[in-house]
Design a protein that fits this description.
There is one protein chain. The chain is mainly α. Among the domains are: 162 residues, no CATH class; 122 residues; 81 residues, no CATH class. The protein is 71% helix and 0% strand. It is built from 29 helices and no strands. Helix 13 runs antiparallel to helix 14 and helix 16 packs antiparallel against helix 17.
């Protein structure tokens, strides 16, 4: 016993001594650093003063810098006549008028003025940097310094030293045999001395407040140590009596703290009170006695909260009560303890539900309306988590508990609303009421309590942190969102979902994640945190779309899944547009635009699932999409213009795409043949392109004139799609079965001619991106390719030439191309000559040259049959005809010479 007391005393004595020595050394180092800094500043100032030019009667010879601009020379009166020059070769300063002799200056050491002139001026003194915030070590050192330098320092150090000295004295007296008294008398003597010191401290509470409070705390600590030693070390008193004595001492310390307004003494009493059952434990495991004692302690904390608004005291009680209660529940809880555990849990919840109300009541009028988020939000959520552990098999009752908590907090919110003084507390209770009411739904269907509680608490903490402009609650809320995701993933991996669509915990939990993310986004947007608001919105949309997509895929058959996704996109885009109409935001408008864009691949999925997009439930899905899409476009008129125009741009491209898929499937089923299929695919695009070129105002609704900015891009996209289809259609044989193939008047040729006409119309408009010089060559090349394709199709349908890779080796096809190309060249020659168009004549000549090269390279191999011979004869006859009608190209028009001046 004596060795233990001596060791404790020496440890308590050594710590402050070492701290004092360390502080003394630190203060000495700081003083030396300050002296060195002062010396450095004085030396720097002296160097700067020497580098500056001195004003006086004597001249200073310096070399001017080459980069310095010449200064303006002031006008001075003519100088006085100089005295005769000295015979000495040294430079002499000019003499000035006699004046009063100045006092003699101290001797200045000679310096090299030429070298000084070249030496750069000293740099200006550094601007002191902004002071950095002290780190954790510096703040801890500052707290130790404050403890030793503020208040009644002597009594603080004296109590520590006295405690160690008394322990050492008792040890020495015991070793020397000076105290041959029973241990009970020794402890009684120490107790009497401690009581005397406690009485003395109480009597000095007014005149020497700091001294008295420190003395009272020390004496109560000594009494608690005496009780501990008498019970646990020497067995002089029973554990029950020791526990009762400790409780009396703790409550006495609490009473002294309240009477004197000393929070430190109250904190000491609460710590000692909560730790007393631990150090005086007998190992009986009687949780009723333990929590009964904690209930009395918490009642004392509530009583203190009625008189004093000591937040730290409330937090200590909260942490110890629920911390030790949770530890007991994890380690020692059994099913037989259910009733008593429920009773104590309800009692502790009621106690710490009342503490924030008492704390708010003690807040002075006009002070900032802050609340204790740890108690306001932590109490219901931790208590509910413990309740979930107690009712892990009875989720229905747990849902009723959540509903009851929601009703309780709704009533408190309504009651606090009347005064108007507790605005933040009232809003917090309203948020908790809504959260628990929402939480009751998934709990009634599945056990997702932890994830849902964390998600709701995280959203509440983010809102509270923004409301109070504090970072810690905001980051805590975001961390809770991450913890909720971990809990949700863990629960999803261990949950078997039943066949009930939508009404199960995983889906409802995901919806809670989405709603909490939207709540966080709205809170950040309200406080103008744009980046955080958009990240939270994207997080919410991820949960929203992911949950609906997975659930629809689970409960719907494969054919109906794309139709349901189309409705989901329509609803999502419409909701975002409605919100954008009230609070304009590019992200909301972008969501509506992307929802329309998503309909393009969904139309393809519908066609793969049930032949075309409008089959089965597709027709109803597209009707819903059309209605909500029009409403979304109307709502976007008041928002960001770029996304609104992009949405309407996508809207007008979407319908020709869906109709093309429909017509292709219908025509292929009814008629067959690739010609009809190609024509069916291009008909909606021909219609929308014709409207865009000829009746543009029809496409501007509902945006109106704002959509005129998309005129050129929309026409360009439509014409580019037509040109791409036109090029792909050149590879088709154009079989119009069951109709016979007739050149030019068959469906595919007519469709390709219509495309060329629309492209020509587009190129000849002023807003076309293609240049004026490229119009004629592009259209001429297109017409030439189409004539070539029609010729080859004729050889295939009328002459029986195969439509495959062997078509190029068919003599019929080659002869047909030779004749048709020659006719085209002859027409170019003749028309160019008759109309005086030299470019047309040269184009015809170039085409005839190409045909001649073809005869030499390709058709020469077919001279063994009639078709090859006919191609040569036809080319020769056509050239002869050209030689008669247009023997030479028309001359280029030459400008007449201008008349001479004065003629």
């Amino acid at each position: 016993m004596e060795e233990l007391i001596v060791l404790i005393g020496l440890a308590l004595l050594t710590v402050p001594v070492l701290l004092v020595v360390g502080l003394a050394m630190l203060f000495g180092l700081r003083r030396r650093v300050a002296e060195l800094e002062d010396m450095t500043e004085r030396l720097r100032a002296e160097v700067a003063s020497r580098a500056m030019p001195t004003s006086g009667a004597g001249p200073v010879w310096t070399r001017a810098s080459a980069s310095a601009p010449p200064a303006a020379t002031p006008v001075e009166p003519p100088p006085a006549p100089l005295p005769p020059q000295s015979t000495d070769d040294t430079l002499q300063p000019p003499t000035t008028a006699p004046a009063a002799a100045p006092p003699p200056l101290p001797p200045v050491p000679p310096r090299d003025t030429w070298r000084d002139a070249d030496r750069p001026a000293p740099p200006p003194p550094d601007t002191p940097a902004a002071p950095r915030r002290p780190d954790v070590f510096a703040r801890g050192l500052r707290l130790v310094k404050r403890w030793f330098t503020s208040g009644n320092v002597p009594v603080k150090i004296g109590m520590l030293v006295l405690f160690a000295g008394v322990a050492a004295l008792l040890k020495y007296a015991s070793d020397q045999g000076l105290l041959q008294v029973p241990i009970s008398l020794r402890l009684a003597g120490v107790s009497l001395a401690a009581v005397a010191g406690l009485v003395f401290g109480w009597r000095r509470r007014i005149s020497h407040r700091t001294f008295a409070l420190s003395l009272q705390g020390g004496m109560i600590g000594i009494l608690l140590l005496v009780v501990f030693a008498a019970s646990k070390m020497f067995g002089l008193i029973a554990p029950e009596f020791a526990f009762a004595a400790s409780v009396l001492l703790v409550f006495g310390a609490g009473a002294l703290a309240v009477l004197q307004g000393a929070m430190a003494l109250a904190v000491f009493a609460v710590l000692a009170g909560f730790l007393a059952p631990i150090w005086l434990s007998t190992g009986s495991g009687n949780h009723v006695a333990l929590f009964g004692y904690y209930a009395v302690l918490n009642a004392a904390i509530v009583t203190i909260a009625w008189f004093r608004a000591w937040r730290l005291l409330n937090l200590l009680g909260f942490v110890f009560t629920f911390g030790i209660g949770t530890l007991w529940g994890v380690l020692d809880y059994e099913a037989a303890d259910y009733r008593s555990a429920q009773a104590f849990l309800a009692l502790f919840f009621a106690i710490y539900l009342a503490v924030p109300l008492l704390h708010a009541r003690r807040r002075p009028v006009g002070k900032r309306d802050l609340i204790d988020g740890c108690l306001v939000f932590g109490t219901p959520l931790i208590a509910f988590s413990l309740q979930a552990g107690l009712m892990r098999e009875d989720t229905t009752t747990l849902a009723l508990v959540a509903l009851g908590l929601g009703a309780l907090y709704a009533g408190l919110s309504w009651w606090l609303r009347r005064g108007g003084r507790y605005e933040v507390l009232q809003q917090s209770y309203a948020l908790l009421a809504a959260g628990f009411a929402t939480l009751a739904v998934p709990l009634a269907l599945s056990a997702q309590a932890t994830a849902c509680v964390f998600a709701l608490e995280g959203a509440a903490l983010v809102w509270l942190g923004l409301r109070q402009q504090r970072r810690l609650p905001r980051w805590s809320g975001i961390a809770l969102q991450g913890a909720a995701v971990v809990a949700y993933v863990f629960a999803a991996g261990n949950t078997v979902v039943d066949d009930t669509p939508f009404a199960h915990g995983l889906f409802v939990g995901a919806m809670l994640f989405a709603l909490s993310g939207l709540a966080i986004a709205a809170a950040y947007a309200h406080w103008r945190a744009v980046v955080s608001a958009r990240l939270a919105y994207l997080w919410a949309m991820l949960w929203w779309l992911g949950a609906w997509t997975l659930e629809l895929q689970r409960v719907l058959p494969g054919a109906a899944f794309p139709d349901a996704l189309l409705v989901l996109m329509a609803v999502t885009g419409w909701l975002a547009a409605e919100r954008n109409r009230r609070v304009a935001d590019p992200l909301l408008a972008g969501t509506s635009c992307l929802a329309l864009v998503a309909a393009l691949p969904l139309a393809v999925l519908q066609a793969e699932a049930h032949q075309h997009p409008f089959a089965g439930y597709g027709i109803w899905a597209w009707l819903v999409f059309a209605a909500l899409g029009v409403r979304a476009l109307v709502c976007l008129r008041t928002g960001e213009g770029g996304f609104a125009r992009a949405a309407q741009f996508t809207w007008w491209l979407l319908w020709p795409f869906a109709l093309s898929l429909l017509l292709v499937q219908v025509v292929d089923r009814v008629v067959g043949g690739d010609a009809w299929t190609l024509v069916a695919a291009i008909l909606p695009w021909l219609a929308i392109t014709a409207i865009a070129l000829l009746r543009w105002p029809w496409l501007t609704h509902p945006l109106g004139r704002d959509f005129d900015a998309m005129r050129m891009p929309f026409r360009s996209v439509c014409c580019a799609l037509l040109a791409l289809w036109w090029l792909l259609a050149l590879r088709s044989a154009g079989d119009p079965a069951p109709l016979p193939w007739v050149a030019v008047v068959n469906p595919l040729d007519l469709a390709q001619i219509a495309v060329l006409m629309l492209l020509a119309r587009w190129m000849w408009r002023g807003d076309a991106p293609i240049g004026a010089r490229a119009r004629v060559p592009v259209l001429s090349a297109g017409a030439f390719l189409l004539v070539t394709a029609i010729t080859l199709r004729g050889a295939h349908h009328w002459g029986g030439a195969p439509w495959d890779a062997t078509l190029a080796s068919s003599s019929l096809a080659q002869t047909s191309l030779t004749i048709v190309w020659s006719v085209l060249g002859v027409l170019g020659w003749v028309l160019g000559s008759r109309r005086g168009q030299r470019v047309l004549w040269l184009a015809g000549a170039a085409l005839m040259g190409i045909v001649l090269a073809k005869l030499v390279i390709v058709d020469r191999g077919h001279l063994g049959n009639l078709w090859g011979i006919g191609s040569f004869i036809a080319y020769g006859l056509l050239c002869t005809v050209v030689g008669f009608f247009a023997p030479a190209p028309p001359r280029a028009a030459t400008p007449e010479p201008a008349p001479e001046a004065g003629a």
